[in-house]
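Q: Hi! First time asking for a complex rather than a single chain. Here are the components, and I think there are two in total. Is that enough to go on?
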Amino acid sequence: MNAQNFINALPFAKALAMRLDDLGNGRAEISMPWDARFVGDPATGVIHGGAVSALMDTCGGAAVLSYPGATTTATIDLRIDYMRAATPGARIVAKAECYHVTRNVAFVRATAHDGGETPLASATGAFTFATTEAKP
Amino acid sequence: MTAPEPVQAIKQRRDSALASLVGAVPYAQFLGIYFERHGDELTAILPYDDKLIGNPQLPAIHGGVIASFLEVAAIIELSWATIWPDLEAGRVTPEDMAQNLPRLPKTIDFTVDFLRSGLPRDGYARARVNRSGRRYASVHVEAWQDNRARLFAQATGHFLMPQTG
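A: Yes, that's all I need. Here is the structure of the assembled complex.
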């Protein structure tokens, strides 16, 4: 599946205008533009935390699916730490990696950047993991 | 002794204060989220829409939509619970709020449990402020679809309260 097809297959990722920038071997990079519709606090123009969560969740799921042999996945839990506000107008880039995979669970960590020196958010999550091999 | 405030005036005051609070969050409008109010109790509603799908095969609502819904519900509840005493005492009027919106709490962290896949139908959420201090607050949110007792997601978040003065 090519990169744009991956996003187009996920209606909500498409609604947030996400772009798959890199994918493979349990790692993914997905970005999202600043958009006035995604703002959480109009006084500051900062993107809503929920939109950042959606980006991190999509990126984490993509990283799991790119792990060799993976078939489907679903998020079990996701924790996001918001270290600072996203810069209004700036594109947000999420990078996720599966740092450990068991037979049934993939452990993922992710960060979100907007071009500043420090990441604006980090995330850790557990995702379901399934492979094509039949289970005993 | 003054006559009690007419019930319609009370409802009007509370509903317009809530409307200006929710109306101030563009991302909530983008997702189609709105709130029902019974006294001070809020229920967030996420009407189903095709654009909210994350897995078209099942189909299931995108985990990011669910996380967003819970975070919106938590922030609005926390803000609402903070404003409520001032609103009821008349220290803040809906007109004040429409003119000069209260600053919203900032999310420090947010942890979501995805308990079941989100079905292609409306979702509901209620948040509870477990701790609200001058600076920090802890909020728990529960979300369900068909059955109140069968949650499809829950979350806990910590928030930095807006500082006044």
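A: The two ends of chain B are 35 Å apart (CA to CA). Let me know if you'd like any chain examined more closely.
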